[in-house]
Write a structure and sequence with these properties.
single chain; 205 residues; 0% strand
């Protein structure tokens, strides 16, 4: 099932929609923690601090939006998520695969590997967010939902521009590496969407 169909179905069901918001919140929170984990002990840039802070804000904002739909969903426990196993592993798998690629392609290790992975993983995620959140907002508008993600869309667009600038400083071959990261992310994302669709179909049987 394609992304738009999945989201269109989600926004028309209060329980699914609440769990979707909670799942997105979990994933934004995971991203924020991963950004913080890649920080250098002393050479922490403003951009990294900004990204971590904004991803944490997105996690908070998305979870807060749930109250416009229903009560509960206060934790990231499995019953309050959609496709919990795949949702938890998505970013971890992306990070792992990008690290493997950078080790093989550039021979990076240590802090250089962490920073390179941060750049490529974040870029791939921002490319995805640039697609996902506008589709979600359009679906929200269609059903005249009180939920909205317009502020996240604006910030994610800014993140993408920042990551492009960072990647250009990282390597003259940045486009090759970025394309590979997006390719890895696309495969993982498609598997995640399939898992969401499968769970949703199982619940309606």
């Amino acid at each position: 099932m394609e992304l738009q169909k999945v989201i269109n179905k989600i926004v028309r069901d209060i329980d699914l929609h609440s769990r979707w918001l909670n799942t997105l919140s979990l994933m934004e929170n995971t991203g924020a923690r991963k950004i913080s984990a890649c920080e250098h002990k002393t050479d922490v840039t403003l951009i990294i601090l900004k990204h971590a802070a904004e991803e944490h804000r997105h996690a908070y904002y998305l979870k807060k939006q749930i109250s416009k739909l229903s009560e509960g969903y206060l934790t990231y426990a499995d019953p309050f998520l959609i496709a919990p196993a795949q949702s938890r592993l998505y970013l971890n798998k992306l990070d792992l695969e990008v690290c493997k690629y950078l080790k093989s392609e550039l021979g990076l290790s240590g802090q250089d590997l962490k920073f390179g992975a941060y750049l490529l993983v974040t870029y791939a995620i921002e490319v995805r967010a640039d697609e996902l959140y506008p589709i979600y907002q359009a679906a929200l508008d269609d059903v005249k939902s009180k939920v909205n993600v317009k502020s996240i869309i604006l910030e994610e667009e800014g993140h993408l521009e920042e990551m492009l600038a960072e990647l250009k400083n990282f390597s003259e071959n940045w486009e090759l590496y970025a394309t590979k990261a997006v390719e890895i992310e696309s495969a993982l994302f498609n598997s995640w969407i399939e898992a969401l669709a499968k769970e949703m179909q199982a619940e309606t049987v």
